[in-house]
Each structure stands twice: as structure tokens, then as C-alpha cells.
């Protein structure tokens, strides 16, 4: 599977679909570390949304001739 180019949309899809029974069993297996799978996915969504806002502010103050602007815009495009 290729790398995601729409990170926020894709993690939202993961949240909406929810984990499979096998994933839930693995995440709550008492013989391993127990993880709040849906909670961590929601936290990842929040962090991606926060990152998008922060980068929008950085881009707004980046000079058009700055070579990092293209990279910043590419990252923003991935956070859709």
C-alpha cells in the first residue's frame, strides 16, 4: 500500500471503521501492553489537526523565496 497523502482523512477513516475483533483482542491482551486503540487513534487525529494549524501559521510567515516553503506546502498538502 502506498504512503498516505491525506493523513487527516485517512486517520478519520480508521476511526470511523473501528478496529477489527482481532485488533481489539491484540490491543487488550493481558499478556502484553494494553492499549486504548480508539483513544490513540483519536489522539493521532487531534495531533494531525493541531500540526496543520501550526504549519499554516509557519507558512503564512515564510518568505516566498525561502527554499523551505515548498517543503512546508508539501507537508500541508499531506495533512488534508
Write a brief structural summary.
This protein is mainly alpha-helical and 80 residues long. It has helices at residues 7-17, 21-27, 37-60, 68-78.
Rg on CA atoms, Å: 17 Å
Number of domains: 1
What structural class is derived from the secondary structure elements? Answer: mainly alpha
Give the overall pLDDT as a whole number. Answer: 96
The number of E-state strands comes to: 0
- Outline the biggest β-sheet: none
SSE string = HHHH
* Shape call: elongated
Task: Walk me through the structure.
- The chain has 80 residues and is mostly helical.
- The protein has one domain (7-78).
- The protein has helices at residues 7-17, 21-27, 37-60, 68-78.
- α1 packs antiparallel against α3 and α3 (37-60) packs antiparallel against α4 (68-78).
- It is elongated.
- The mean pLDDT is 96.
Itemize the secondary structure elements and their pairings:
Layout: H1 7-17, H2 21-27, H3 37-60, H4 68-78
Amino acid at each position: 500500500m502506498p504512503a498516505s497523502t491525506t493523513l487527516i482523512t485517512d486517520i478519520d477513516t480508521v476511526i470511523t471503521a473501528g478496529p477489527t475483533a482481532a485488533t481489539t483482542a491484540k490491543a487488550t491482551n493481558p499478556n502484553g501492553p494494553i492499549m486504548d486503540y480508539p483513544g490513540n487513534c483519536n489522539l493521532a487525529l487531534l495531533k494531525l489537526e493541531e500540526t496543520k494549524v501550526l504549519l499554516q501559521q509557519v507558512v503564512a510567515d515564510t518568505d516566498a523565496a525561502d527554499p523551505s516553503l515548498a517543503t512546508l506546502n508539501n507537508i500541508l498538502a499531506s495533512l488534508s
